[in-house]
Amino acid sequence: MQTVHTRQQLKSTIRSWKEQGQIVAFVPTMGNLHDGHLHLIKAAKQRADRVVVSIFVNPMQFGKNEDIDAYPRTLEQDSARLALLEVDLLFAPAVSEVYPVSLDKMTRIEVPGISDVLCGEHRPGHFSGVATVVTKLFNMVQPDIAVFGEKDFQQLLVIRTMVRDLDQPVEILGVATVRESDGLAMSSRNSYLSEEERKKAPFLYQTLREMIEAIRKGNVSYLELEESAAKKLENAGFRPDYVNIRNANSLQPASIGDHALVVLAAAWLGKARLIDNIAVTLKG
Ligand code: PAF
After folding, report:
1. Is the shortest distance between the CB of 30 and ligand 1 below 6 Å?
2. Cβ(61) to ligand 1 under 6 A?
3. Residue 284 pLDDT
4. Confidence of residue 24 (pLDDT cuts 50, 70, 90)
5. Pairing with 194, which of 78, 110, 237, 268 sits 20 to 30 Å away (CA)?
6. What is the pLDDT of residue 283?
7. What pLDDT score was predicted for residue 248?
């Protein structure tokens, strides 16, 4: 595996692949790789001749009081895992390589509507930071395919919308959430959980599953389901930012008659902000 740190090195390698007509798949990450990332990379390998992975903890998507300093950085360990998976190229740029000017002077991409609800409401500017860095990385890597996890359901929708609206020439592939054996969705932020909190953490997914079961059985009292789920989480020691049943395409509150639904939650457990979701398509 080749590791590069500059745009220049990245471009010359990718140019030579493109000249040979090879298909390039790209998996953008912030590092601290877990099995969830490995599934994204495997999906990329199945679809392309070459796989590029980036590791970049993007300052633009973190709010002022968020965990950018604490965010786990494990480049050496990540690089060894990627080499074992026979990834072709690791791009690990410094902040100054991606943002040569200060962040407040940078052009930003906004994806209105879909970015302003749920996590966007609790993390103002977050999705603009994601959309901007993903666009910059797409421009640098020029992939044919880019792979993202469905665990970040809203992020995936923001990226799909951006690619459609800006005619970005890349196919977006979503990959199902990878879970621990007790159901907890894999995430780099799970490392913030204490032993005690780690035992409680799967309750988030369990709560979403109960909501989905009720919806499948025909319960359309969405507000009541949301309120009772939030209470259950609070009683179990979580601090929910939101637990919502939404239209899976617009992320607006679900209406009776909507077929494509998604139940999404973000909740704090100690220092970890956990997010999870389950999508469902109702028949009829
Ligand atoms: O999902 C992530 O890890 C990040 O939001 C991404 C897509 C790599 C952009 O920084």
Report:
1. yes
2. yes
3. 73
4. very high
5. 78
6. 87
7. 98
Residue 203 C-alpha to ligand 1 middle, in angstroms?
A: 25
CB distance 271 to 188 below 8 Å: no
89-91 and 239-247 as β-strands: parallel, antiparallel, unpaired? unpaired
Task: Select from 26, 27, 29 the residue to mutate for testing ligand 1; criterion: most ligand atoms less than 8 Å from CB.
Answer: 29
What value does the mean pLDDT take over residues 67-91? 97
In 10 A of CB 281, how many CB atoms? 9
Residue 85 has pLDDT above 80, yes or no: yes
Phi, psi for residue 268 in degrees, rounded to 5: -85, 140
Q: Which of 5, 34, 37, 39 is catalytic?
A: 37
Residue 236 class from Cβ within 10 Å (0-12 exposed, 13-18 middle, 19+ buried)? middle
Residue 152 in contact with ligand 1 by CB distance below 6 A: yes
Between CA 128 and CA 135 the distance in angstroms is 10
Its sign, for the CA torsion 234, 240, 246, 248, is negative
CA separation for the pair 228, 219 (Å, rounded)? 13
In this structure, the residue with its CA closest to atom 5 of ligand 1 is 130
* CA distances in angstroms from 37 to 96, 127, 131, 187, listed in the order given: 25, 20, 19, 9
Please give the residue that has the higher pLDDT: either 188 or 283. Answer: 188
pTM of the model: 0.98
